[in-house]
Amino acid sequence: MIQESVSLKPYNTFGIDVNAKRFAQFSSIAELRDVLAELKGDQLLVIGGGSNLLLTKDFDGLVVRNQIKGIEVIKETDEHVWVRAGAGEVWHDFVVKCIQMGYGGVENLSLIPGNVGASPMQNIGAYGVEIKDVFDSLEAYHLKTGKLETFDADACDFGYRESVFKRSLKGEYIICSVTYRLDKNPTINTSYGAIKQELQALKVSNPTIKDVSQAVINIRSRKLPNPEVIGNAGSFFKNPVVDKDLFEEIKSDFEEVPNYPAPDNKVKLAAGWLIEKAGWKGKHIGNYGVHKNQALVLVNYGGASGSEIYDLSESIINDVEAKFGIRLEREVNII
User: Fold this and answer.
1) pLDDT value at position 40?
2) What DSSP state is assigned to residue 164?
3) Domains along the sequence of the chain with CATH
4) What is the DSSP string of 217-239?
5) Which long-range CB contacts under 8 A does 267-270 form with residues at least 24 apart?
6) In the chain, where do the E strands start and end?
7) What is the gyration radius of the CA atoms in the chain, in angstroms?
8) Measured on CA atoms in the order 214, 52, 66, 227, is the torsion positive or negative?
9) How far apart are CA 308 and CA 199, in angstroms?
10) Is residue 30's pLDDT more than 90?
11) Minimal CA–CA distance to 186: which of 99, 126, 123, 112?
12) pLDDT value, residue 1
């Protein structure tokens, strides 16, 4: 069940070729318990789709890949349906399944790379929707006690692209399944980004959740590189939330700065725009760089090391801070 000295290149969307000292996959709680019994004091790294990960060196421990599958309706009312999915399900496949069943709420999150288990951990979001908007609960395996525990939304303490599992409980649990509350009579959300324009281009005047999903797929496909073709982890940086004073200062120099209202009278800015204005969009450095269509995306054209991409991200952070007084945060997990 446990393999020795395994390349992690097939298991991360950046395509970084580093080795795990030991490697195993599990598709049930029972298999997970068997694998963890062989931990023997090693460091542990749990991965899913490997889409939000930058591996900068070999991992001197045990890497376990979550492959728990299954999608089922566990409860429903006239208005809502509760759908539970295994953490190892591919996120976009789950979205497609929900749309096929006519359940709304996740269509704006189409084509986000990664697996279901990462969705609450990262509180993934796009086009005006975040996981916390549709989240009901999750089951997670506690590494110390071996017990399966249930977390509701309050216990997850969701923030912008984060949750308690990225903060105080980091490394303590393995998410095994996630339950979402979806709508039987969906409210169509086309207010964010270019969805309305894309629907107009598709000549859709009365959109369904399938239409919204297709619009999002079209937009993302144009802007973002396919990880199967060019190594990347999607958006590398979080969109920064800044005080209104700083926003007004930036706006006085750049009237066109994209901005969105945020809680506590703050303003969310587009990290991609900041990076582009700092001169990094499309920059090619050997076999890695910044994507030509979306400055938020760092890319591995083949053969780059994780440390090279990390150093690139550090240069971008420093340049944006020097130009705008904003220090960008990485969204991707660095190992």
Assistant:
1) 82
2) G
3) 3-66 (3.30.43.10), 71-183 (3.30.465.10), 231-334 (3.90.78.10)
4) HHHHHHHS--TTTSEE-S--BPP
5) 267/241, 267/242, 267/243, 268/239, 268/240, 268/241, 268/242, 269/239, 269/240, 269/241, 269/242, 269/326, 270/239
6) 3-7, 19-26, 43-47, 53-54, 59-66, 71-76, 80-86, 125-126, 129-130, 135-142, 148-152, 173-183, 231-232, 241-242, 259-262, 266-269, 284-285, 288-290, 298-300, 333-334
7) 20
8) positive
9) 39
10) yes
11) 99
12) 79
The values of phi and psi at residue 233, to 5°, are: -120, 30
- The whole-number pLDDT of residue 143 equals 94
- Taking phi over 0 as left and psi of -120 to 50 as alpha, with beta for the rest, 265 belongs to left
Nearest to 126 by CA among 274, 241, 282, 239: 239
Catalytic residues: 161, 235, 331
How much is the pLDDT for 75?
A: 95
Q: Which of 99, 100, 104 is nearest to 81 (CA)?
A: 104
> pLDDT at position 256, please?
92
Euclidean distance between CA atoms 173 and 121, whole angstroms:
11
CA angle 116, 300, 194 (to 5 degrees): 60
Provide the pairing of β-strand 125-126 with 129-130. Answer: antiparallel
Q: What is the pTM of this model?
A: 0.88
Q: Quote the pLDDT of residue 11.
A: 96
